[in-house]
Amino acid sequence: MNVQAFGKARAFTAARSQKRSCVRTRVVVKADAETATKGGRKLGPLERGGTLSGADAAGKDAGERAKQMMAGEAKAGEFLQIRDGRFVDDRWEGGRWNLSKFANAAGETDWDKVIDAEMARRKLLEDSPIPSTNEDAVIFDTAEIPWWAWVRRFHLPEAEKLNGRAAMVGYFAALAVDQLTGAGLLDQQNSFLGKVLLHVAVFGILIIRTTSDLGKYKNLIDEATFYDSQWNAAWVGVQRPSEKEQ
């Protein structure tokens, strides 16, 4: 009786241990299948290529080419290359961009893509200059790009940024005047001093858009006074003749 009970208990223990082993094996296999490991540790989001997929994985404000590559929609071909001393691009034909290859979904020319391609071409040639030949003349002119494409691409974002800066500077100046004189915003708007400060803020932002503009104006002043400084330096330690002397 004791032998039979001992045998049943042993068989039950063995079955239970085998079941636990199977469960543990399934859990380990599932974990290995779902998560990639590197050196015994779980890969981070950046090592796995990010948490996004498709065109979203290209990042914020990514170019159209980068989005197409991440989505697997980029067309095969040669783009923006220099080979055997010549600029090579499948969209560059006969010394100009083939605008038909920049068509959007509606069949119209995507001028932003044309601008991007021309900027990339000029940057490539600036970094890797090649000789110009009559056989491979460049006949593309940026004047072919409509004026509204340039305005939409460059001037509108710049105008929006300048308007925001002018508003912030003007509002801060109005608060300072209100604190010093007690005149409210409407009183300042109707007063001569308020209008003067408004124009100072607007034209100041237009003249000095970035801190680098300060260096630009300094260089202009130095250039304008360079010859005078050079002339005065030539007379250092030298007795200048009198204008009255014949």
UniProtKB/TrEMBL annotation:
Q: Which domain of life is it from?
A: Eukaryota
What protein name applies here? Uncharacterized protein
| Transmembrane helix is among the record's keywords | yes
This entry carries the following GO cellular component terms, namely: membrane
How does the entry describe its membrane topology?
Multi-pass membrane protein
| Subcellular localization(s) per the UniProt record | Membrane
Q: PANTHER family in the record, alphabetically?
A: UPF0041 BRAIN PROTEIN 44-RELATED (PTHR14154)
Name the segments for region: Disordered.
Answer: 39-58
Keywords (alphabetical) are:
Membrane, Transmembrane, Transmembrane helix
